Amino acid sequence: MQPLAGRDDTGDERGRNGAHTGSEDTELAGGGSDLSCSHPIDDKRCFSSLSCCEVRLKYSAGVQPLPDLSIRQLEYLVAVAEAPTWAVAAERVGVSASALSQGLAELERRVGVALFDRDGRRRLVRPSAAPVVAHARQVLGLTHDLAGWADRVRTGRSGALRLGMIDAAAVVHLPDQLRRFRTDHPDVDLRLRVAPSAELLELLVAGELDLVVCVDPPTPVSGIDTALLLTEDLAVYAPPGHPSGPPTTWGPWVLFPAGSHTRALVVDELRRLGAPLDVIAESHQPDVLREMVQLGVGWTVLPT
Predict the structure, then answer these.
(1) 174 shares its domain with 205
(2) Domain that holds residue 32
(3) pLDDT tens digits, the chain, 304 residues: what are they?
(4) What pTM was computed for the model?
(5) What is the number of other CB atoms lying within 10 angstroms of the CB of residue 23?
(6) Are residues 100 and 139 part of one domain?
(7) Domain membership flag for residue 220
(8) Is residue 63 part of a domain?
(9) Which of 130, 136, 182, 227 is the most exposed place for a label (fewest CB within 10 A)?
């Protein structure tokens, strides 16, 4: 390799050849750089040479995974480690002695390490197999914890519940039930969404809610199961001092917004009665509708 030459202040270029031989060991072989000066530093005549290097990398093989070990095999191992005899161990895990023996032979084969010593006709867990037994106990304990968690989730005692409710259900009809559910199921992460029925059903169908309490939709919604919780009557409310009369004299109206399930039920019934449908105000809030009636804005239909 040709050396690199530096320039001095006057622009004269001078150089000298340099060589460096690197040492080599079993993992890394290569050359280094040699920086030398043939004149004092203030002359700035410095030269360097760099030899080629070769790098050898060693790759350590990763730990090979064991073939599939079953929870049942680990149960067998812990049982024989704790029981006085294999017959007692087989009884504890609910299998025959031959099935226990076959299962442990398969475990030993899959681990690839001898786990048992023979003492006459008996087989004993080797002291050197203690780490395997400890691992088996740990896995069985974690598996038991997982089974308990899964059972709590299946039975509604743990996990998350995304609940949607219309405001009347959350505030008027079911507040005590909500409070009791939180008290009785402290491990359930309850998330409540209060919205109109149509919006709640859309979220339910989209998978963003798990359960909704809403007004029965005008038409069935495919893909969901429904159950009747309660029924309530609807009544017509007129402004104070307004004379009652036949349905043809009712109105104008302040109602739930268009698209509301309750609005659809009300409109269908008013049409059946022959009442004119002049809607001049809308609100999702029953209290707001009730107040507008008191102010003489219009008529409304609300749960009794």
Answers:
(1) yes
(2) 4-55
(3) 333 333 344 344 444 444 343 433 333 333 333 333 333 434 433 333 333 333 333 333 466 787 788 999 999 999 999 999 999 999 999 999 999 999 999 999 999 999 999 887 778 999 999 999 999 999 999 999 899 888 888 887 788 899 999 988 999 899 999 999 999 988 889 999 999 999 999 999 989 999 999 998 888 888 888 999 999 899 999 999 988 899 999 999 999 999 888 999 999 999 999 999 999 999 988 999 999 999 999 999 998 8
(4) 0.52
(5) 9
(6) yes
(7) no
(8) no
(9) 227
Q: How many domains does the chain have?
A: 4
Question: Looking at residue 178, which CATH number applies to its domain?
Answer: 3.40.190.10
